[in-house]
From TrEMBL:
Species of origin: Pseudonocardia eucalypti
Record flagged with keyword DNA-binding: yes
Stored PROSITE patterns: HTH_LYSR
Keywords of this entry: DNA-binding, Transcription, Transcription regulation
Protein name per its UniProtKB record: LysR family transcriptional regulator
Family: Belongs to the LysR transcriptional regulatory family.
Pfam families listed in its UniProt record: HTH_1
Xref: InterPro entries: LysR_HTH_N (IPR000847), WH-like_DNA-bd_sf (IPR036388), WH_DNA-bd_sf (IPR036390)
Amino acid sequence: MSEAGSFTAGAAIARIPQPVASRRIAALERHLGERLFDRSTRRARLTPFGRDMLPTAKRLVHLVDAMEHDARRARQRPLRLAVPDTCTTRDLAELDAEGRALDVYLEFRPAPPAERAELVRTQEVRAALVAVPAPEGAWTVPLGLAGAVRPTTSVIYLDTLRVGRTGRPPRRVWLQPEDDVPHIRDRVIRVRDSVGLAPTQVTVADSLTSAAASVFGSGDLLLCSAVQARELGLHWRPLGETSLARGFDVGATLGDDADRLRTRLRDGIARCLGVPDAEGDE
């Protein structure tokens, strides 16, 4: 106000109505117990007390500007999110772009299920898409079996993999690390045992790449989602003996982060996880 020469000009510079500026100055004067401006002339001139307070006031203005700058930077600090290894680079990039449009800045840390949960516990990431039983999940991804040869049936039964007398090597079902969790792995093993397959006919691979490599050019099958099968060029069918699905939820150190991911970025996360757009994807 003192540099502008009047309350009206000063209010315009501060982008507030002149009556509001006058009320705020009056309130500050009451708080400090002394007048800051001489109102006996048409110009807004500082009183001696006001001139003494001016350096401190300028420092406060600079501090407010610095705080606003720091707040902008803090809002743009990435939210480190642990995600499944199965998420593709393109899907993560699209999710990142969607987040930026909503002022949510993401930084991804791909990891297998157990490691994702541990990263949240040790606060190495702010949030993670954690593996949970399908009924408990915010997102659900149906699983089935996929192979290099197109099946002639609408579902695949594990009992068709029983070793016969042909002398051919036994066909295997490969599980990728994402499905090496009790609520999926143990159910597959129970079906394996109930239909009489050999223990080695259900195997957990070291990676999705090695699992897919074992399926290409053989009669082996990969436990995966329909979206993964399509990306790999495999033919997918549901499992006949039981219904399997991955479940995912958000684990986070702050409830606000979890709510933001579940709601504002729900569709983008669903795409990354391979939630099907429609039933019957092959």
